[in-house]
Amino acid sequence: MATGFLTDTTVCIGCKACEVACKQWNQLPHDGYELTGDSYDNTKQLSGSTWRHVAFIEKPKDENRYRKLSGDVDLVALAEGVKDQLPGGAEIDGLGRWTFMSDVCKHCVEAPCQQACPTGAIIRNEFDNVYIQPDVCNGCGYCVPACPYGVITSIPEDGRAFKCTLCYDRQVDGLEPACAKACPTNSIMFGEVEELEKIAEERVQQLHDRGYPNAFLYGTPEVGGTGGIGGNHSKFILMDEPETYNLPEAPLLPQATVGKATLASAVTAVALGAVVAWAFGSGE
In whole angstroms, how far apart are CA 275 and each of 214, 259, 261, 271, 283? Predict the structure, then answer.
């Protein structure tokens, strides 16, 4: 039985209860409190000590313009979408809308991190989840660049890599992961992957029927698929392009780009050799 997550971003309210629950249950250290200056989201991204991260994404009404607020801002005009000129070329644009997404390890079917691990520390457990065995990990870090989603990072003080375990210990006891348990809007659902796929298809159709034709399930072949990864056990219902959520449109296995990189290196070497030969030849 394969288990996974389904995250419906259309009902996420950005409360970050999932982040707190994940840290509490897994006894993860805090990341400090630092204002990023570009969003109300101050936990930044997934890391070795943040296994769930709720991204705050601001969507201006005019996609081609960035909002710049300076001077005495008229909040009423701002809310009504009124645009006005401000000193220094700054402008007021409408509020647009907020989008939230609780991000997590995708638990790839053909996990690149597992393929890159030289010690066998990364395995698939009995729930078909991608699991890092901390007592086997030697901290080589090969899994970090192998992940096409940028999920895995090493903890500097420890050296080893960590990520979401899909609350393996809770699953063993028949419990759902802490993040799904804490979610107040049921944005995060946990269950068997096949059942989650059915729920996702029904939800996407429901959104289409309600007038949101841009809703889709990330990773399905109709919207780019997941290349050689073979699918994800963490699924997401999105309303915007994947890049909006910092997700690759079509994730690839790292080795899929080796051929192009090798060819580019060979062409560069030939070009440099020609330049050097011409330089020496012209000096005679």
Answer: 51, 24, 21, 6, 12
Q: How much is the pLDDT for 88?
A: 57
- 78: exposed, middle or buried (C-beta count within 10 Å: 0-12, 13-18, 19+)? middle
C-beta atoms surrounding 59 within 10 Å? 13
Q: Where does residue 1 rank: exposed (0-12), middle (13-18), buried (19+ CB within 10 A)?
A: exposed
User: Is the pLDDT reported for residue 40 higher than 70?
Assistant: yes
Statement: residue 72 has pLDDT above 70: no
Q: What length is written for the chain?
A: 284
Q: Helix H segments across 109-255?
A: 112-116, 143-146, 168-172, 178-182, 193-209
Burial of 48 (0-12, 13-18, 19+ CB in 10 A): buried
Q: Which residue matches tokens 């970090």?
A: 144
- pTM of the complete model: 0.79
Contact assessment for residue 71 and residue 90, using Cβ atoms and an 8 Å cutoff: yes
Question: Which residues are registered as beta bridge partners of 217?
Answer: 237
* DSSP code at position 122: E
The confidence band for 68, taking pLDDT boundaries of 50, 70 and 90, is low
